[in-house]
């Protein structure tokens, strides 16, 4: 071989050297600074992330039209719910938080402000005037009168809605159930008919199961929410209302009325089966029609809803706290002013109407639903919410120091959703004992968080969770 | 035919090498420079994505931190105490070990049997079969998990359809805590079977063919060849392959998360899912607590690695004797 010929070793060496040079060039040197809106994307563009899967088409379009109106490029990105929190964590750590985003982070507002996740937004008086009274609540969406977040949806909603297939109801011949017994009778009728599966739920999604049972227990007479009594401030998951609601699911499971596989279904699994038709009942939130439409629009005309079940068919009384901000402005955004203007557009009637048309969670302004292109059961449900959902007391609204406790309170495992799954699957046998353990665990976690917060100067005690003047069926005022 | 092994030390001491010339030293330095240049990217990436996270997790295990704020409170060994006092941690340890006990023997001995079969010169299309068995290894694990959920769907999956043909009711293999772990284990074995098979095929190539020929001339049949040649010469490999497979079995997060997410009721919650649940799936992430669990998990894996080192040494000794 001539010395001038390229040997294999020299060739490999050259390739290695080129690779090294490339690597060093990629690692070092000066890179252009991120645009004013944070890292990535066009310089000067406003970056908007949201996790609301059913509204993506609307939001893509909204980004274009409002971008043109505001004279800014709006880059809209779907922040997939399963990874939304992690994505925001990474964005925050790399100083790339979007300018506007939906904050799926489990921290209370003061902690978000303190950690630089959000910054104040400017909402004009005209905009505030067209929103329902009490939209902005101290400790939840504003601090010391400064607004940090805009709620996108109404707090007047319950999520354990009894959706059923009207075609199957007509063929099998059952009435919309109101009580637990009505429900069991209807399921039995479907099972005996033999052609359809009586019911499915997202039993594998323990968080969703927890929410459903929390709602059913409240409608069944539990004087509080998420296991915590409003009147005494004590955890009482072992209350009869919880036991009865879980026993209802247990009876349904043991009778073999759940679609096979339901035990492991996540939300898309259960909803996908329900949307395919052939299943009598599906307990899901008001957002079910919006999700079903994206899966199988032909199912929409067959969807009917019977409100929420109560043990003996009593009138529903639901109590929910005010919402925090569903839209916030990133703490590092340099486009806060234009971001505020963009956030204000979410309060416009055309956006609210489009939101209602999406049939996701009902919009902030419930009045627009009547004129929106929605199925009749959705409109009926929204009216039911208006009449039957009341404002709950919230300790952080009365004493903002409570948020320091909430930021410290460690999650409990197994949680209610796990207990439900374990009881229905047969791994747990003594339901009330398990629920009592759950109450004790939550109570201990709360006490520990209070102790930690007071140690750091917070003025807070268990009494902050007590609202002895709370009355069921009445909006709580402070 | 016996191979004479001459210890390296003996060669070195037999003829002391003359000191290398300056020109040779320069050549060696240049050559070594290239070696280090090629290793540098690996060192950098390994340091960034393996060493740094390990060291960081040791620090995080000593603090209380939710990952949302910069505020990290030093809590000493409190996280370790909390992890060790959590029954669900011990449940995840039990599930992890049980999973390993189910899948490791199936992978090691099942792949061994298959490798023997595929190594046979009489088997037609052996290359095709080798590729076919290896194919699941290169398939994306999360996709396998999702597809398997459809295949095992008790309402409409193909397995349910076959069972219905035999008049059997719906069997929820992944949805029942009594069958979920075993089912996941079988799928895991199918998915990663090919790696162990390749180990065994490589080991089988090390057996000199003339040993078989000599034994055949002496009248040995297939069973005697296997019993007296194949098996003894593969025992050193059995140790290494077993330890490698056992260690591999501790890493089943992607498949398990996509198939069962640790359910139903924690029955398939291996340690990796336990760590993930506290670090990322909790409403307020508990990164300190999760890091403490990860460190403890690392210690368990370390014990296996020590066993691996020991097994490698034993295996070398055995091979030297052979």
List keywords for this structure.
heterodimer, A: 478 residues, alpha/beta, D-Maltodextrin-Binding Protein, domain 2, 2 domains, six-stranded mixed β-sheet, four-stranded mixed β-sheet, 18 helices, 16 strands, 11% strand, disordered N terminus, B: 322 residues, mainly alpha, MetI-like fold, two-stranded antiparallel sheet, 13 helices, flat
Mind explaining what this structure looks like?
The complex is a heterodimer of chains A (478) and B (322). Chain A has helices spanning 8-27, 56-70, 81-93, 109-114, 125-129, 166-172, 180-193, 206-219, 240-254, 267-275, 288-295, 336-344, 349-357, 376-388, 395-398, 402-408, 416-425, 431-455, and strands at residues 46-50, 74-78, 100-101, 118-119, 142-143, 146-147, 149-150, 161-165, 197-200, 224-225, 228-229, 279-284, 303-305, 318-320, 327-330, 389-391. Chain A has 2 domains: 46-150 and 322-391, D-Maltodextrin-Binding Protein, domain 2 (3-Layer(aba) Sandwich); 155-321 and 409-478, 3-Layer(aba) Sandwich (D-Maltodextrin-Binding Protein, domain 2), CATH 3.40.190. With 478 residues, chain A is an alpha/beta fold. Helices cover 42% and strands 11% of the residues of chain A. In chain A, strands 1, 2, 3, 4, 7 and 15 form a 6-stranded mixed beta sheet that branches. Chain A has a 4-stranded mixed beta sheet with strand order 9-12-8-13, sandwiched between helices. Chain B has a single domain (73-321), classed as MetI-like fold (Orthogonal Bundle). Helices cover 71% and strands 1% of the residues of chain B. Chain B has a two-stranded antiparallel ribbon. The A-B interface holds A 13, 16-17, 19-20, 23, 85-86, 89, 92, 105-107, 111-112, 114-115, 117, 197, 204, 206, 259-264, 266, 273, 407, 409-411, 413-414, 418, 421-422, 425-428 and B 34, 37-38, 40-41, 66-71, 86, 88, 149, 153-155, 160, 170, 172, 174-177, 260-261, 263-267, 277, 280, 282-286, 289.
């Amino acid at each position: 071989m001539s010395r001038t010929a390229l040997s294999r070793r020299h060739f490999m060496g050259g390739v290695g050297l080129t690779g090294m040079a490339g690597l060093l060039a990629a690692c070092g040197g000066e890179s252009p600074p991120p645009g004013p809106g944070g890292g990535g994307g066009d310089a000067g563009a406003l970056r908007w992330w949201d996790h609301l899967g059913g509204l993506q088409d609307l939001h893509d379009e909204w980004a274009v039209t409002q971008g043109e109106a505001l004279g800014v490029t709006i880059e809209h990105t779907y922040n997939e719910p399963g990874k939304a929190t992690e994505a925001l964590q990474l964005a925050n750590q790399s100083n790339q938080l979007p300018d506007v985003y939906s904050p799926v982070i489990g921290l209370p507002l003061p902690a978000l402000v303190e950690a630089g996740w959000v910054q104040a937004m400017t909402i004009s008086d005209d905009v505030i005037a067209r929103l329902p009274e009490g939209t902005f609540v101290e400790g939840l969406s504003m601090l010391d009168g400064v607004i940090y977040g805009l709620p996108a949806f109404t707090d007047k909603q319950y999520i354990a809605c009894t959706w059923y297939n009207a075609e199957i109801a007509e063929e099998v011949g059952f009435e919309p159930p109101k009580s637990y017994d009505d429900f069991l009778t209807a399921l039995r009728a479907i099972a005996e008919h033999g052609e359809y599966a009586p019911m499915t739920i997202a039993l594998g999604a323990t968080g969703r199961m927890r929410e459903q049972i929390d709602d059913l227990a409240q409608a069944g007479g539990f004087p509080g929410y998420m296991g915590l009594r409003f009147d005494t401030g004590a955890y009482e998951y072992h209350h009869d209302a919880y036991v009865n609601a879980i026993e209802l699911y247990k009876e349904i499971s043991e009778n073999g009325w759940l679609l096979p596989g339901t035990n492991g279904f996540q939300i898309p699994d259960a909803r996908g089966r329900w949307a395919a038709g052939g299943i009598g009942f599906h307990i899901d939130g008001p957002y079910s029609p919006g999700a079903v439409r994206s899966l199988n629009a032909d199912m929409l005309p067959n969807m009917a809803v019977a409100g929420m079940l109560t043990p003996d068919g009593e009138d529903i009384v639901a109590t929910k706290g005010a919402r925090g901000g569903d839209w916030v402005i990133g703490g590092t955004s340099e486009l806060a002013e234009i971001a505020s203007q963009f956030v204000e557009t979410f309060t416009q009637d055309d956006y609210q109407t489009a939101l209602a048309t999406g049939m996701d969670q009902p919009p902030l302004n419930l009045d627009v639903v009547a004129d929106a292109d929605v199925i009749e059961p959705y409109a009926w449900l929204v009216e039911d919410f208006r009449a039957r959902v009341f404002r709950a007391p919230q300790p952080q609204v009365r004493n903002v120091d409570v948020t320091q406790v909430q930021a410290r309170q460690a999650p409990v495992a197994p949680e209610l959703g796990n207990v439900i799954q374990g009881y229905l699957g047969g791994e747990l046998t003594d339901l009330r004992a398990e629920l009592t353990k759950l109450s004790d665990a939550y109570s201990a976690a709360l006490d520990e968080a209070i102790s930690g917060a007071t140690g750091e100067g917070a003025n807070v005690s268990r009494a902050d969770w007590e609202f002895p003047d709370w009355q069921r069926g009445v909006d709580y005022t402070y | 035919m016996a191979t004479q092994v001459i210890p390296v030390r003996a060669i070195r001491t037999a003829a002391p090498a003359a000191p290398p010339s300056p020109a040779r030293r320069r050549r060696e330095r240049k050559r070594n420079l290239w070696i280090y240049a090629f290793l540098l990217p690996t060192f950098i990436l390994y340091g960034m994505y393996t060493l740094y996270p390990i060291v960081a997790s040791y620090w995080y295990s000593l603090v209380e931190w939710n990952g949302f704020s910069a505020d990290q409170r030093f809590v000493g060994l409190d996280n370790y105490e909390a992890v060790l006092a959590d029954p669900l941690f011990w449940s995840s340890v039990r599930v992890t070990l049980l999973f390993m006990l189910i899948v490791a023997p199936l992978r090691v001995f099942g792949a061994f049997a298959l490798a023997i079969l595929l190594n046979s010169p009489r088997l037609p299309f052996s290359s095709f079969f080798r590729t076919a068995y290896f194919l699941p290894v290169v398939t994306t694990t999360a996709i396998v998990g999702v597809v398997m959920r459809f295949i095992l769907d008790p309402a409409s999956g193909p397995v349910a359809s076959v069972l219905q043909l035999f008049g059997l009711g719906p069997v929820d293999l992944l949805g029942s805590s009594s069958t979920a772990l075993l089912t996941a284990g079988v799928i895991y074995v199918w998915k990663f079977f090919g790696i162990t098979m390749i180990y065994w095929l490589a080991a089988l190539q090390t057996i000199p063919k003339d040993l078989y020929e000599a034994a055949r001339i002496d009248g040995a049949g297939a069973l005697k060849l296997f019993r007296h040649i194949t098996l003894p010469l593969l025992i050193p490999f059995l140790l290494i392959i077993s330890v490698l497979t056992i260690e591999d079995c501790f890493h089943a997060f992607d498949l398990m998360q996509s198939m069962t997410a640790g359910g139903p009721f924690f029955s398939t919650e291996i340690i990796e899912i336990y760590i993930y649940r506290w670090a990322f799936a909790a409403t307020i992430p508990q990164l300190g607590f999760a890091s403490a669990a990860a460190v403890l998990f690392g210690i368990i894996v370390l014990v296996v690695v020590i066993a691996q080192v020991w097994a490698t040494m034993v295996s070398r000794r055995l091979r030297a004797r052979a």
